[in-house]
């Protein structure tokens, strides 16, 4: 059986809503990360067999198969096909898993998996209509924030716990930025903003002065007496990231050094009302598939859709908190939905390398009641 390896991974700095990328088209952002990944890895682009891109809100400039449009804009050979897929928040993690599956099956040898979302220009939900009665008769369809509230209640997570976890995210992300830990994974980019050229080099949403006291003053976002606020939720963001995968045999043939291998991939459905609990059973299942335990994993990237999601997950899995999102997460860095899976994988790869660790596990909840997971082993 073929072995799928990761040769390179890069991301753009994440922009906040109405921030530095608000005047920049999504196709340009995606084309720049594709071009940057090819140049950084020094791969001959004619070796690429496919480009798979996760994108949630596929309308207007993010529609019409943005993957193919951006691949052409990146001046990749026209013979390279490209496809866009949507598994909600796990879209670009699904792209990574699908690329790995294709390589392991022997269908393809070199694939770029990427993600894109400019949520400023394409607000979440603008690609859908109201749920049909055939669905609402079966399930109570509620907003994700209300699901996060119910998770906080079920797992007995206090407002203080949620806010303290959120502060931790900002502090770790700021520390990683200040120390230069993010510098290897970030590709700087030039964009136009307010009539001037701006070079973006770091994530825009981190609030280094965030404190639990400040967060405690925020009003609940989804119910009058709720615990979920804008401060302990992921930020609406703009961004893109890309990962270069290939077979280990092809990497050797091209003289490229693999940095990690994909050893397990999985996806699961969960209660569409609670919606965000899928990472709990999926983590247990993928660990069993890989023949590993929670203690074997050196770094976890559990997406911070809302603080209640990773906190409930930690209550059930009991990992050492120092291993979880060691450079902060979506609460601080932002959650450009279609791009987040590739962003998390990019960060996870660099964390394993910088910490000289072996196993990394990435898991994400997805809208509608799903979750995606991947385990990699650093080489």
UniProtKB/TrEMBL annotation:
Active-site residues annotated for this sequence: 89, 335, 365
A Gene Ontology molecular function term of the record: acetyl-CoA C-acyltransferase activity
Start and end residues of each Thiolase N-terminal domain: 5-248
Record-linked InterPro entries: Thiolase, Thiolase-like, Thiolase_C, Thiolase_CS, Thiolase_N
Domain of life according to the entry: Bacteria
Coiled-coil spans in chain: none
Domain Thiolase C-terminal: 256-378
Keywords: Acyltransferase, Transferase
Family: Belongs to the thiolase-like superfamily. Thiolase family.
Listed NCBIfam families: AcCoA-C-Actrans
Protein's UniProt name: Thiolase family protein
Natural source organism: Salicibibacter cibi
């Amino acid at each position: 059986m073929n072995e799928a390896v990761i040769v390179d991974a890069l991301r753009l700095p994440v922009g906040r809503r109405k921030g530095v990328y608000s005047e920049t088209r999504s196709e340009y952002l995606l084309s720049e990360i594709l071009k940057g990944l090819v140049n950084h890895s020094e791969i001959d682009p004619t070796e690429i067999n496919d480009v798979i891109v996760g994108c949630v809100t596929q309308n207007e400039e993010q529609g019409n198969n943005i993957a193919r449009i951006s691949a052409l804009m990146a001046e990749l050979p026209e013979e390279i096909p490209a496809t866009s897929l949507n598994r909600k928040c796990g879209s670009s993690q699904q792209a990574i898993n699908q690329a790995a599956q294709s390589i392991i099956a022997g269908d393809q040898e070199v694939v770029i998996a990427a993600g894109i979302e400019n949520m400023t220009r394409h607000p979440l939900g603008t690609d859908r209509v109201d749920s049909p009665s055939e669905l609402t008769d079966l399930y109570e369809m509620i907003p994700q924030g209300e699901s996060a509230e119910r998770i906080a209640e079920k797992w007995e997570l206090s407002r203080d716990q949620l806010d303290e976890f959120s502060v931790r995210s900002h502090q770790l992300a700021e520390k990683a930025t200040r120390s230069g830990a993010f510098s290897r994974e970030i590709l700087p980019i030039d964009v136009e903003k307010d009539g001037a050229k701006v070079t973006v080099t770091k994530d825009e949403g981190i609030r280094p002065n965030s404190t639990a006291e400040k967060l405690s003053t925020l009003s609940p976002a989804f119910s009058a007496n709720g615990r979920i606020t804008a401060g302990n939720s992921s930020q609406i963001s703009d961004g893109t990231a890309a990962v270069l995968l290939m077979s280990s045999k092809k990497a050797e043939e091209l003289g490229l050094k693999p940095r990690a291998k994909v050893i397990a991939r999985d996806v699961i459905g969960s209660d569409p009302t609670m919606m965000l609990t899928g990472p709990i059973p999926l983590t247990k299942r993928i660990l069993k598939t890989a023949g590993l335990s929670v203690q074997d994993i050196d770094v976890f990237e559990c997406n911070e859709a809302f603080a209640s999601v990773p906190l409930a997950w930690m209550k059930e899995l009991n990992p050492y908190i120092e291993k979880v999102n060691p450079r902060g997460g979506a609460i601080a860095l932002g959650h450009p939905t279609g791009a987040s899976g590739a962003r998390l994988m990019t960060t996870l790869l660099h964390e394993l390398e910088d910490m000289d660790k072996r196993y990394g596990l990435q898991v994400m909840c997805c809208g509608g009641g799903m979750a995606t997971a991947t385990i990699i082993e650093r080489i």
